[in-house]
Amino acid sequence: MHPDNLSNVELRATHRRMALANGADMFIAQQEAILARADSRADLPGIDIPAWVIVGEADKVTGVEAAREIATGARGARYVEIAGAGHFVPIEQPEAVSRAIADWLSA
To answer: How far is CA 65 from each of CA 33, 79, 102, rounded to the nearest angstrom?
Structure first.
């Protein structure tokens, strides 16, 4: 989460509920999938669709640098950085994400 959101009890409870609902086995499976996935950055120039890459300004999981690389590498992609959010952008800043999606759909 964004540092400003760390003391937000409601957001922390939502994150905890999500983690508990998925369980440890799912977390382990997700991490194994991440570790085993192929590097697909070479495929980015072949993407030519109106994709928007949305990232939280304080995302320490994906990171803004990786998001910028994806948006720069894919033709037709746009980079959108959401202020006040970390990795949990839709939970931390739902209105900003909704606006970005609405803009994408109307583009």
So the answer is: 21, 11, 24
Q: Minimal CA–CA distance to 54: which of 80, 93, 92?
A: 80
Cβ-Cβ contacts under 8 Å for 2 (sequence gap 6 or more): 56, 57, 58, 84, 85, 86, 92
Residue 50 has a pLDDT of 87
Residue 5 near residue 92 (C-beta atoms within 8 A): yes
pLDDT for 102 equals 95
The pTM is what? 0.84
Give pLDDT, residue 31: 93
Centroid of chain to Cα 6: 18
Please check whether the domain covering 3-38+46-106 is classified as CATH 3.20.10.10. Answer: no
Contact by Cβ (8 Å): 73, 39: no
- Which residues in 41-55 are b (16+ Cβ under 10 Å) and which e? eeeeeeeeeeebbbb
